[in-house]
Amino acid sequence: MPLKSLNVFTIFSMLGFTFLVLFISGFLDFPAVSNSIIQPINQQPTSSGPESGPDPFTNLISAFRKWDSQVGCARFKENQIGFVSVQSNGSSSLQKVGGESELECRELKMKHVSVLVKGWTWIPDNLDNLYSCRCGLSCLWTKSSVLADKPDALLFETTTPPLQRHIGDPLRVYMDLEAGRKRTGVDDIFISYHAKDDVQATYAGALFHNGRNYHVSFSKNNDTLVYWSSSRCLPQRNRLAKQLLNLLPHHSFGKCLNNVGGLDMALSLYPECANDASVTPKWWDHLHCAMSHYKFVLAIENTATESYVTEKLFYALDAGAVPIYFGAPNVWDLVPPHSIIDGSKFNSLEELASYIKSLANDPVAYAEYHAWRRCGVLGNYGKTRAVSLDTLPCRLCEAVSRKGGRNAKAS
Question: Which intervals hold domain Fucosyltransferase C-terminal (predicted)?
Answer without folding.
Answer: 222-404
